[in-house]
Structure formats: C-alpha cells, structure tokens
Amino acid sequence: xxxxxxxxxxxxxxxxxxxxxxxxxxxxxxxxxxxxxxxxxxxxxxxxxxxxxxxxxxxxxxxxxxxxxxxxxxxxxxxxxxxxxxxxxxxxxxxxxxxxxxxxxxxxxxxxxxxxxxxxxxxxxxxxxxxxxxxxxxxxxxxxxxxxxxxxxxxxxxxxxxxxxxxxxxxxxxxxxxxxxxxxxxxxxxxxxxxxxxxxxxxxxxxxxxxxxxxxxxxxxxxxxxxxxxxxxxxxxxxxxxxxxxxxxxxxxxx
Length: 255
Fold this sequence. Notes:
Layout: H1 2-19, H2 38-50, H3 53-65, H4 83-93, H5 95-102, H6 117-140, H7 151-168, H8 173-190, H9 194-200, H10 224-229, H11 234-254
Helix pairs in contact: 1-6, 1-8, 3-5, 4-6, 6-7, 7-8
Protein name: hAT-like transposase RNase-H fold domain-containing protein
GO molecular function, one term: zinc ion binding
Organism: Armillaria solidipes
C-alpha cells in the first residue's frame, strides 16, 4: 500500500501549492477574478454550518427542497486520504442548497464566505486535479483483488493525466508541477523493481512453471502493457522473468 500513501503525499503537495498561490491580477482565467483561496473559504463555511444544530437543520431543509435527499456537507481531515477532494466534491453537489442557505437573513454573518461564480469555477478546477490521485488510491486500495499488477500501469496513467491537465489548465500548471517532479522521479525508480514487473508478466516458457513454486499473479496481462507503453523495456522484462524462473527451477531440483 505504499503507492496510495505516495499519492496522499502528492495531494498534500498540491494543497500546499494552492495555499501559497497568489490570486487576482496577473493570473490567467478565473484566478484573475478572485482574491482568496476558495478551499479555505469553503472549509470555514462548512465548519460554521456543522458546528450549529440550528444551522444544520436549516441547511438540511434546503437540501430536501433541492431534492438531494439527506446529503450533508463534509469536512476534510488530515488523517483521511483525499478528504479535501471529497469535501469539495460534496460541496459542488450541494452548491444550490449552499447558495439558498446563505440567502437567509439569519445567515448574514456567514455571507462573507459565500463563493462567487469564479470561485466555484476555480474550486471545480481544484477538484479535477485532486480527483486524479484519489481515483488512483481507490484503484490500488481494493481489498478483495490483488492490485500489485496494476501499480505501474495505473501510476503511468496517473502521471499522463496530470500532464494533460497541465496543458488543458495552463493557469494550474505550477500547482500540478509542485508534486509532479517528485512523482516522476519516484516512478523512474520503481519501474525497475522486479516484483511489479513479475506481477504483470507471464513467461512464454510455461512448461518450466511445473518445476517451480512460482505463481504468475496476472496471466491475463502478460507483457501487453510493455508492448503498448514501454516497448524498449520489453526484452529486459522477459530476461528478468526467465532468470527468476531458472533460479527457482534450480532451487526446486536441489531440494
């Protein structure tokens, strides 16, 4: 589970970069039209609503009126992975009840935390960035299915997705890059760890497997990922696997 943990650290790097951003003139897109961090404003608003039973009751009525069932606002916490992204996602879903709630006269002291249209837009951009590592964590934290074979393909897809977002969101390039450098360096290191490569491979010398206790973790995947995404590494993986099979065969015959 070290990879999901690495993704959690990546999220924290992005969140720190967001906290250090300068808003207003000089930025691109909606960032030029706001003067504060919308995540911080949202967090304070949610805390204020949840801390009062009366406010919670009024807000719950607004949610019902919007036909959103019994959904509640969620707070982010440091000990829960991806909690900031989850908080933002829920707030976006409850955007209409939030706006309706803040229009009430009794909520005047909270109206300073009301997000403008541009702040909601920026919040959605942040959500799109943070949701990528969250999806990666979910994929590799499955309890019932071995996921070691998914690590390299998923990690590669994750990095590619963030690079694409940098192109699509030039105003967010530095925010993403704050974590991307570290992750790319880490990926280059794990690319040559045998365990992750064995998990995706299947030797074409299958007959040798009967002589060894070696278990192929994912025979369906075989070497297809390397053929499509990293053909230069294909021969290295084949040789690595064959060497391991040969070594295990020798151990089996000598025991």
